[in-house]
Amino acid sequence: MSKSPTSRLLKPVIAKLVTILPIPEDHKDPLASTAQFCHAALGSISPEKAGEHKLPIEKYPPYFDWCPEYDFISTSRRISRLLGLPQQQSDDAAQLVISELGSNRIGLNKAQLFLDPTFENIRDAHLGFLLKGLPFEEGRYKPTTATMAIASKVIPKPDTSWASRLGLMSKQPSTHFNGNVLEIVARSKCYVWSFPPAKLSETTTASMDIFDGWVGSGGEYDRNRASLGMGFVIIAEPWGSKDPATGKAHDQYNFYVPHWLYDERYAKLRPDSDGWRVGNILDKSIYEGWPNGTKLKWHLHGGIRSLPQIKSCLKCSSLYIERANALPGMPVTCKCHVAAMVAAKAAASTAYDMGYRAGLNASDGSAI
């Protein structure tokens, strides 16, 4: 097995599963087969596909009330095929694999798979594979994550463009911090961290992926609710302070983490809406320098200044970055500037047309 981050993450899980799965003694390669079972459960297809496409398999914090979704059906089928076990034994073994992955909080970050342009060429095919392992009962899929609810068309897809995500975030008032995001970005240097690690508790909400479907008397989901991370956080430039207990200096980094909320009832009340809106923008902090505290440099090796700086315009309520191509699709100027450029271009075009026509008229007059 390769020494990729995924293989290192799965190594202790595979080592334990080899000792508890009903693998025949004459089986040629228990470790390789067990890795296949893990990837079937994760939805990453195989170790080879996970490595080829660099799929985001991550460890999630242990104290959140949501966890990754696993593919029981594909896992059981693969165990049956590779180990030659009967159905019931394969099902029991699949449950062992899923339990071990779940207790270690290891999962495929489907929110990143759904949003990251890096996966644009494989996204539809991979989501199609994941659908095959989704429970399908009484003519409908039964997802437990927002991404799979979208893929199975149980709920609509939100507008995932950067302009839409930033627009929703900029409009959201907050009671958790001093002012809204537009005001914070206007008065402080702030940066955008796209697809931060899910294992970091301060940023894991960017990868949130939850679906809760209520089935009504008609057999249809009629109270669908979902929460989905927007795949990014905004970090403010740190400011120094002292621990009141020890007097030691530390840098405080503030994180602002948006996520989408979907509610079927909200969609019905607003027919012009797709049902998605922004949830509470979570305000988290890392105190760099505190004993036993999280150190941002462990997760962001280049420091926050390696990230694109985000700007805001209070006049037109826009968020944008100044480094073109730093984040593909991200607005690089505010709406005021765009409107001014459009107006200037229109004025220049009008002036050109008027000059061209005046020239034609003069030419026609000289010919008479």
In short:
The protein has 368 residues and is α+β, with helices and mostly antiparallel strands. Helices cover 39% and strands 18% of the residues. Helix 1 (5-20) crosses helix 5 (87-103), helix 2 runs antiparallel to helix 4 (72-83) and helix 2 (30-42) crosses helix 5.
Distance linking N and C termini: 87 Å
Q: How much helical structure, as a percent, in the residues?
A: 25-40%
Strand elements, count: 15
Largest sheet: 7 strands, antiparallel
Radius of gyration: 26 Å
Categorize the overall geometry: globular
Broad structural category:
alpha+beta
Q: What count of structural domains?
A: 2
Uncertain runs with pLDDT below 50, 5 residues or more?
Answer: none
- Please state the average pLDDT score: 85
Q: Give the SSE order as H and E letters.
A: HHHEHHEHHEEHHHEEEEEEEHEEEEH
How much of the sequence lies in strands comes to: 15-25%
The total of helices stands at 12
Say what oligomer this is.
single chain
